[in-house]
Amino acid sequence: MNRWISITAALVIAVALATLLFIGPKTGNVENLRATLIGYGPWAVVISVGLMVGQAIIAPLPANVVTITNSLVFGPIWGSVLSWFSTVLGACLCFLLSKTFGKPFAEKIVGDSIHGAEDFFKKYGLHAMFLVRIMPFVPFDAISYGAPLVGVPFSRFLLATAVGIIPSILVYSYVGRFIAGIYWWVLIAMLCASLIGVVIAGLALRRRSVTDSPSPLFVSSEKISDPIS
After folding, report:
1. What string of DSSP letters covers 173-222?
2. What's residue 90's pLDDT?
């Protein structure tokens, strides 16, 4: 992950976290959130899609937060449909961005996880695209960025993504209905976990850059002349 991307993501999450800690639990009823967002009319859908696509491109932001919120605001059925559509759209944009700008761009966004995605496809083949979309705990965005780099056809990527994400979308959408009473605290916990992940990734990136940079005390032996000769 690029240093400035990690800093930006950390700042965005920190601001969102501070806002939630200040105003979230005070609102009490999730119905207030629903009424507020529904009051925006069609713009509520645009905001939801924008958040989901944004988290796809800036990988550290949690997608599950948007999925759960969609189910609470739009209901489990339409919330699931909206989450499914926006997730597929975000994944396709990641695929096209990686295909257009190449591996250096993908590495700046998802960091070393792009290498894990490449290794997975090299080991199991392109036919594993559908399997990896169903498997939990697999970096979703890294797969989206890594697929075009190893030659996965866009049609196969689109089909595998559209079908493979359905189970997780349904699970998180219906889980949202059961946690309505503690929604704000669940949201805060997810953002805290995301912030910790971004900070750890940023520190690892900084440590690696320091390790890879040449020491200023190093002097090439080729440049040292022998005073005796």
Report:
1. HHHHHHSGGGHHHHHHHHHHHHHHHHHHHHHHHHHHHHHHSPPTT---GG
2. 92
**Locus of tokens 């700042």:** 11
Say if residues 178 and 14 touch (Cβ distance below 8 Å). no
* Maximum Cα interatomic distance, the chain, rounded to a whole number of Å: 86
* Distance, CA of 218 to chain centre: 39
What integer pLDDT is reported at residue 221 of this predicted model? 42
**Average pLDDT for runs of 10 along the chain of length 229:** 59 64 57 73 86 76 79 87 94 92 83 78 74 72 86 89 89 76 68 69 61 48 44
User: Angle at which helices 76-101 and 154-164 pack, to 10 degrees?
Assistant: 150
Give the pLDDT confidence score for residue 218 in this predicted structure. Answer: 41
Residue 178 backbone dihedrals phi, psi, to 5 degrees: -90, -15
Radius of gyration of the chain (CA): 21
Q: How far apart are CA 19 and CA 7, in angstroms?
A: 18
For 55-73, b/e burial (b = at least 16 CB within 10 A) is bbbbbbbbbbbbbbbbbbb
